[in-house]
Structures are given as C-alpha cells and as structure tokens.
C-alpha cells in the first residue's frame, strides 16, 4: 500500500473576503450537499474554510494539485457522527481526513492510501490489452 499525506492551512478571513467579493464563490467551489451543510452549521465561515482546506490538502496528497478535476468535484461531507468524509466525483476515497480551526485559521490533513496491488494489476492488464490489440 502506498500512503500519501497532504496538509493545508487557510486564513478564515481570506475565505470570508472571497465569499463577500465573489457572489458565486460557494456555488463554484462547493457542491449542493456541502452548501446545504453550511446552511445548517452555526460556524459557517470556519466550516467553509475547513472544507476548502480539505480539498486543497487532498489535491496535495495525490500529488497533482487541482488537475484533471475542479474543486467542486471534491466533496467534503459528514457521516452520521459528523466525521468528515471525502468524495471525488461522487466516489468515496480511500483516505482519512481531519479538519480543525482556530479563530484565525482552518487546517486540514489528508492521509490517502493508494492500493499499490490494484495499481499494478490495472497496469498489467492495460499493457496486456495494448499488446493484444
């Protein structure tokens, strides 16, 4: 198994200013489900900043940054215990996610576990397929 780590910190005030300045900031960067969760949360700005940091941390953990997908493709939802879970293009990812915040900053850490054997298996059959066809 291949383990990758991503971390991000963001100033909460920066997110607050972005929301005020760009009317579509929330709809461009967060899914409908995320925006619904924000509307029920009493610490809205901190939660938005934490989710934003989690998206950035995930992109760092996979080593590509935001390439091949956009921030809205990454969803940070909560399970019944309010533990954050991460989905990429509606699929739950094999990672652990932790989000925290202070008055000034939100921080997220992602530990992404890439199944090395699955990767080798897929690569093997991809090469076999191209040899045959």
Please supply descriptive tags for the structure shown above.
alpha+beta; 3-stranded antiparallel sheet; globular
Describe it for me?
The chain is of the alpha+beta class. The strands form two sheets. It has a three-stranded antiparallel β-sheet. It has a three-stranded antiparallel β-sheet with strand order 2-3-4. The protein is built from five helices and six strands; from the N terminus they run βααααβββββα. It has a single domain, classed as Alpha-Beta Complex (Ribosomal Protein L22, Chain A), CATH 3.90.470. A hairpin with a 3-residue loop joins strand 5 (95-101) and strand 6. Helix content is 44%, strand content 29%.
CATH class: Alpha Beta
Along the chain, the helix and strand elements come as EHHHHEEEEEH
Which architecture does the CATH hierarchy give at level 2?
Alpha-Beta Complex
Query: In DSSP terms, counting alpha (H) and pi (I) runs of 4 or more, how many helices?
Result: 5
Low-confidence stretches: none
> What is the number of independent domains?
1
In order across it, which strands form the biggest sheet?
A: 1-6-5
Based on Cα principal axes, name the global outline. globular
Strand % is: 25-35%
For the report, how would you describe the main beta sheet? 3 strands, antiparallel
Using the coordinates shown, work out and report the CATH topology.
Ribosomal Protein L22, Chain A
- Which class best fits the helix and strand makeup? alpha+beta
**CATH superfamily assignment?**
4'-phosphopantetheinyl transferase domain
What Rg do the Cα atoms give? 17 Å
């Amino acid at each position: 198994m291949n383990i990758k780590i991503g971390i991000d910190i963001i100033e909460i005030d920066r997110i607050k200013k972005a929301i005020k300045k760009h009317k579509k900031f929330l709809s461009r960067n967060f899914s409908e489900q995320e925006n619904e969760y924000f509307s029920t949360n009493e610490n809205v700005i901190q939660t938005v900043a934490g989710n934003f940091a989690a998206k950035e941390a995930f992109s760092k953990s996979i080593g590509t940054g935001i390439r091949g997908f956009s921030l809205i493709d990454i969803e940070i939802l909560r399970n019944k215990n309010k533990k954050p879970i991460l989905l990429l293009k509606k699929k739950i990812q094999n990672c652990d996610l932790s989000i925290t915040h202070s008055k000034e900053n939100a921080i997220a850490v992602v530990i992404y576990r890439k199944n090395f054997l699955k990767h080798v298996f897929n690569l093997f059959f991809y090469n076999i397929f191209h040899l045959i066809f």
